[in-house]
Structures are given as C-alpha cells and as structure tokens.
Amino acid sequence: MKAFAPRSLDEAMVRLTEDPDLRLLAGCTDLMVGEPEDRLGLPGVLDLRGLSELRRIEWHDDALEIGAVTPFSQIRDSPEVQKSFPALAEAASKIGGWQIQNRASLGGNMANASPAGDSLPVLLVLEAQVVLVGPEGTRTVPYREFHLGYRQTALGPGEIIGWVRLPKPPENAMQFFRKVGAREAQAISKVVVALLADVSDGRVSEYRLAAGSVAEVPLRLTEVEKAMVGRAAKAEIANLAGHLAAQAVRPIDDVRSTAEYRRFALEQVVRRMTLQLVRRVPE
Amino acid sequence: MTLLGSSPPRPDGAAKVGGTLRFGDDLPKEGLWYGATLRSPNPHARIRGLRWNPERAPKGAVCIIADDLPGPNGVQLLDDEWPVLAEGIVRHVGEPVAVVAAATMLAARQALGAIEVDYEPLEPTLDLSAAANQESLYTLELRSGQVEQELERAHLLVEGTYHTGYQEHIYIECQVMSAWWEADDKLVVEGSMQCPYFVHRSLIHVFGLPAERSVVKATPMGGGFGGKEDFPSVIALHAALLAKACDHPVRIAYDRHEDIIGTTKRHPSVVTHRAGVDAEGRLQAMEIEVVLDGGAYRTLSPVVLSRAVLHAAGPYRCPNVHIRGRVLRTHTPPNGAFRGFGAPQVQFAMERQMDRIGRCLGLDPLEIRLRNVLEEGDKLPTGQVMDESCSARLCLEKAARETDFQERWQHLEAKRRAPIDGESMQGVGLSLYFHGAGFTGNGERVLQSVVEAALLEDGRIEVRTAAVEMGQGCDTVLPMMAAEASGLRPEDVVLAPPDTSRVPDSGPSVASRTSMVVGSEVAHVVTEIRDRILDWWSNSQESGAAHTVEDGVVRRGNGESWPFRELARRYCETEDPLVVSRQHEPPEWQVFDEETYQGVAYPTYAFGADVVEVVVDPDTLEVRPRKVTAVCEVGRVLHERLCVGQVEGGTLQALGWGLMEEVKLEAGHYLNDRLATYIIPTIKDSPEMEVHLLERPWKGGAFGAKGVGELPMDGGAPAAVSAVENATGIEIDTIPATPERLLALTSAHRQVPSGPQDPKRGRRPGG
Predict the structure, then answer these.
(1) Is a pLDDT exceeding 70 seen at residue A282?
(2) Please, which residues 99-138 of chain B have a Cβ atom closer than 8 Å to chain A?
C-alpha cells in the first residue's frame, strides 16, 4: 500500500492529482475502527496531518479560521475558541476521549459526514463557511451546503477540506451544546444539540438550533427557529421549542438508541436550553 | 510474621504496566501461518453443499471441514455435544463451518472466499418465549418444606418476573491460540486460556492422542472473566487441525469483532418469583422459576443452572422453597461461563423481589432484609445449616451504617415526590448477596485436583499447579500462602509455568477456587518439603534438636541459624530429588446429593452488601452511579490490594451489566459487535468506590479464605437499579436499565406503589 505524508499543501495537491484514489487521512479515528478489509484493501493513503497550513486557529478579518487537520484537543484548549465559540470548545471536549481528541480533527469529522458527528451541529449554528482546496484553487461553501447526505459531502474530485471560517457571533448571544451519549466518554451521540440564541428587549432576537443523530444528516431546525424569534422570552416558550424540535426531526431505531428516545431527549434538551436562555442562566 | 493481608507488589505488574509482557499473539514462531474461520450467516439452516475450491484460494492455503476431523466432532466439556465444526446443520449465526490457514492473515481471510456453502434455511428459535415449548437443554429442581400450602396461607402474596440480558466478557486480550505438531506426532498448543487441562482433554478427545503427546501451555492472559474457560477448547482444536493439514504452526487470533460474534456470553435469564410473607414481611414460602437462554449448544449450561438454582433464594431464611430451573435452547450463539456463573442473574431477581415485597408492606429495603437475613443456624433450601462463618447480617448492617442508608433512602423517597424542575434526581439502593465458594456440589471431589512441589538445585521450591494468572493475582497470592504456612519467604517459592507437560491437573482457574482450593494445597506441599528438609537436617546434626523457620531462616534453640535455601541446596547435593504431590479432598462433611439437591452444595459462602448512589438526569434519564459502598466478607484477606481490586472491578462489571451493557440481536445476529457499539463503563463512568473487607474465616483451609473473584459480580446491578427506582419511582424489573428502557417504562406508567398494599389485593402484577 502506498502511503504519503506531504509537508506542504502544494505537494499534497500534486499527489492527489496524480492519484485521485488516495484515501485522505486526518487522524484515522474513523478508519481504524472500521472493518479490517476497509483498511487492508486501500489503494493508498495521503496523510494530511503534517500540513501546517491546515493546522491552525487564527483570526482573519471577522472570522476565526480553523484548519481542517487541527485536532480537537487544540480546539478544546484554544482561548480564542473558548472565548468566542464556547459551544465548539464544549463539543471538542466531548468527542471520544482524550486520546481521540488528540488525533481526531475538525476536517475529519466533517469529511466522515456521519449524522452523529459531534462538531457538526455546532458548525451549523455558527454558520461556518468551508474553504475547499482543489487543483483549480479554492472555493468557499456554507457548511449547511457541504454535508449533502448520509456520508456524502460536496467535496469534488481532487479536493480537500482546507479550513473553516467561523464568523464572529452576535455580541452577547448565548451558545449551548449538549451531547447525549451512552456513557461519559468514548460514546457516539444518541442525540447532539447546539443552540445559539439571544434575547433583547424581552424578546427572542436570535435563535439558531441544530441537532445531530436525529436524521440522515445533522439538521438546522428552521421551523423551531422561526417560531421562536420574536417571542416574549418567558419560560412557557421552552415547552413549545422542545415540542416543535421533536416534530421537526426523523430519528430512527438503530444499534445506539431508539427513535422514541431520541425524540424525547431532543425535546427535553431543547426545552432545557431554552429555559436557560430566557433565564439568562449560562449552562 | 504475618504476610497475609499485606499488599506486596505483584510479580507480573511491571511487565504488564510497562507493556513488555508478551501475550499469545506477540510470541514469535518460526514458519507461522494464520488461521481464519468461515461462519454461518444463518441462525438455523441445513448445509446442502460445502465445497472448497483451492484453485480460487491463495497458493498453499488449506481448509478443514467437519468431514476432515480425525475423531469425534465434539468439544469435550461436560459432554461433547458442541461441534468443533458444523456438520450438516448450522444452529447459530457465527457458527464455525470451516477453517482455513495460509501464510499471512490477509491470505487466510481471502481463502475464506474459496469456500462455497449452500444453505437451506430452517425455522429458527430466536428467543426464550419461542423456546419455552420446546425440549429443554437441562432441568433441575430443588424443594424444601410445603410451598403450595404455605403460599395459600400467607398474609400477602407477591409476584414478580425479572429479566436479565447478555453480557460480553470484553477481556482486553481477545481469544488467541497457536498450535504445531512436533516429531513423533506430538501436538503442542499455546494460547490464552483459564483451564489448560480442559483444552488438553478436548485435544485428546478429537485426535485420539495419548495424554503425554498433547501439550497445552497457557500464555500470559489479558483477562478471562470465564470467557476463557470453555471457548479456548474450540479455537485450540481449530488451530491444531489446521496445523496438521498445512504442516506449519498455525495461529488463530480473533479481532474484537470476531471475538464478540464468535464466543460465549453470560446467559440471559427470566426468573419468576411467587413469595408468601407474613404481616411483618417474613418470608414464609417462595416458588421460583429460573429460565436461562443456553443458546445453540449445552456447553457448561447445566453447571451454570446448578449454581443459579442454588443461589436463587438469596441469603435469606425461608422454610418453604421450591425452585425449578431450565436451560432452553435457542438458535443463538452458545452462552457459557462468565464471572458469577448464574448467581448474578438469580440474585438480581431475588433482590428486586425483596424490594418489591418491602414496598408492598411499606418497609424500606434495609428493614425488609433485616427481617429475613440468613443467620448462623438457619437452613438453606438444600438443608445446609449455616455455620459461624455466615455473615449476611454483619455485611448488611455495616453497609447501612456506613451510608446512613435508611435515612438517605427515606429522604430521597420524599424528595422524589416533590420534584423541582431541572434538579437532578438522586437515589440510593441496597443489595445483599452471597456466593458459594469453589465448585458446586461434588465438583471438587470429582475434579481430584493435584498440586505438586519440587525442590530445585538452587534451594528454592518449585510449585506446580495449572492455575493461570489472568489478572486475578494468583501468581502473587499462591507464593504468599506457601510462605505463610511454611515460614519461608515468597521468593523462596517459584511457580512452574502452567504447561500440561510440567504441572499436574490442579483443576481449572474458575469458580473463585484458586486461592481457596489450590492455595490450600500449595501451602501443604511446600510445608511438607520444608519438613522433609528440616528432618534431614536435624538427623544429620548430632543434637537432633527441633528447629523453627521464620522469614526463610532456620533457627535452633541455641541461637544457631541458616538460610533455608542453604540447607535445601545441601540437601540437593547429597539426596535424591524431592517431589511432593497432594490431591485435594473436600471436607468430609461436604456431602451433596445431586439427585435430590439436598446437602452441602458449597463448603462455605462469602457474603456482601452494596449501597449504590446514583444521579439521574431529569431531562434525559441518563443514569450516573456516583458512589458504591461495598462490604464484602471474604473469610480471610490474603492480599489486601488485590482483594479490594477484585471487589472494585467486579462491582464495575456488575454496574455495566445492570445499567448499560446490552447485546442487541436481530434475527439471531449480534448488531453491536464492536466496542464502539457494545458499551461498557469507562474510567469516567466509574463511581467512587469504598470497599470494606470483613473476615469471618471458615474452617476448611486456605487460612479461612472463601474466594472473592465472583462475589462482587452479584451485588452491583440490583443495588444500582434499586437506586434508580428510589430516584425516579420507575419500577424496574429488567436490565440493563438504559435510558431507553426507563423511557419505555415511564410511557407504560410503570411506577412503584405509593404506599403499603391491601393484603387481600396484594398481588403485584408480574412484570
């Protein structure tokens, strides 16, 4: 099996152009737990983790850029992320366990395109932009147009995920993240929820809600958002938000949980987050 | 000097922690080939055709099917009903149909594609309800007193049906076995196993070899938990058959996926209770039905059922008891040995039933148990009278006192009835349990375990047993026991490797018996060697005076002293080799009637009581155990740290089984056949553990030690579930108590009764 570990983005692009069947590696935490045949049968691999261009967290204009192979431990510990994007820092601290967080990367989580990816609902509510690098140069797509279907992305042939751009969130908006898994660590989500919301003049002024493991892709729950924005910020709206969220998803029974439980947990978590929002109680 | 009860470092510790120890799959072997297994995709089917196409396989690959076996197609355990390879019919998904070997692991996996099998699907029996009307794999019955009559007369009748699920062992090291044939048709097998002589017996059975031409060596083990009691015989046979066919050493090493789909698990159970109690809650009569899912083959199920039946009434006093046990056959992988061996299932049911009886009478979990706890002089349903080492009350009272149980439980009951939105729900639960030490019934008598000791030229004593270190600590504890008995130092004793060509059959490393039974005999044979040398020394001295031995030093009354090893070396120089062997005899008063199930089923019992505190998320019903207080009375603590470790590890395994571990099946297929989906507790899920070890030595040997390996598996699950009930009010009779199950029970309005029941209407519906 061929294995390449390029030292620069240019070198990586050359390799990939020459050999478009190479499997891209950004931490291997999904690959290594798959079927042995999937690993043993690979034509070759291109390990992107050595690319410093793709391993960085820095402000550019009004957006924080996070490189695709930046490991979650770095995101979790980054003061910039903690200050401006606490929901992402929280998600990074709940993925796998410490060992996984040291290897697994934001780009890998996106490329794997699982409905249960813990960082993905956060990217949805942060309205992340994804910068894709290809042989023809770069292009930028909103994250919600990147994750197309179950394990399907908008990555074209010869393209790799370069970095994401997180626009500076609205001043004073609150961010929430909650993962419901089968145990305290090393769990794949049964339900994962992110909320970015704000209250001004006694009314909900911003309400962006997304959930994972409740459909074939992580969903922005726009019906809930529309119903919430403009409402008086009172405890009663929490029940409505939870109820509408449960209506808006299409979970399934699978090896990790039941559709009934996922709907229930989503409803309860959204209710709780909304209560905290209206009470301005940080999580 | 008292060595016992201290905590010297374990000799195998540094290599295990440092990662330098070589396990079965790490051992180099010249010319090694790899084996792979073709498994049935059907739960039940006729094999109409089975063809090996060598031209489609990697060059040189070999294949073995049932027809190629040189002898009986059966794995010799209690009987040989379990096929080595499926013959004509497959009876579970994952059943081995053929095995292949090739020069690399990848080539071996590719060779599987060169086998064609034509299956004709047959109707499968997939669960206990479907199996209920079919012939049982095994049945047992135990009776004492007048049950029907007393149930009629009882003040209150309480019924309940309790369900427990599968459990997968998840030893860190998956199953691995290597085999090769040496000159003169001698078979050598080495790998990860708890019972070298079980494997030995199976090899002899299938290959028709004389005992000395089959050599079985246990490699250092990365955990067993019973999972390497029965199954290693299967994989050893596969490797040996392949090695014969390809004329190379062959290794079969399962990855986690194959280990989960291919090996045995804990028996799922359904236990039904009918109990009659008087107005004070004292048990008058119990009728208990125990049903285990044996899977497709009998394996060790009859003895698992036996232990289940003998523990089904718990450590309680009840004069009239009728217990019926059945193992049913389903078209699922065979279930087998797992730490606890049937006792955790039935004691989960008994403990839940006690809580239910308590609630029916308005008594808390402590009070209902205190009114029924087994004490010295009381009889078990087998008629066995409890002796002075019975410590159920001691454990129960200590656990309650340490945790302020009664007060906490009442407080949290009240708190539950006045919930505050968003506040986490807290609960506390209690369990009382016991575990019979050593083999069941006449098992030890039948085993005729033999232990040997031999004097080495360097003056140390080699102890020869088939006991295998699997993490439990026997390599640490056996020399300590020898030292304690003989006055030598642990380092004066060296353990021979568990290799059937070097050690006698001291029985399997199972049933919490190694310290209690093997350790007892080790102490005897080492002491006997010491005595022989001291006699020789005394006789060779003019004075002939008596000597004492302490800390490896021999002293005479006049103050003269010699290191024991020095004398032993001198003995070796002039005398014939010194080897002592001894066969274990259970106490003569341990007599059990296998027909009537009356008598002394176990020479002694260890006892325990657990208090588990949980927090339940009010939104998601996620359960987090926060603290466990475990009080275990183990007769005598041999090595304190290891003993505490057994209790902590077993308790966590029990919490996993009770709260999260769940094997999910669909049409006979395991759905969660990997560690990403079969969920066990991580260190972050482990609660704080406070372990109290108590000692009430029994009189039969081993310095009073009763065996501790399995005991802690019995108490964690019922206590945790009881705590969830205290926190949520949801009445739980099935484990694991996952949030999904709690939600389903909530939707079905399964709540605990709010107060005492009217006796006339006291029948609680069966769950």
Answers:
(1) no
(2) 106, 109
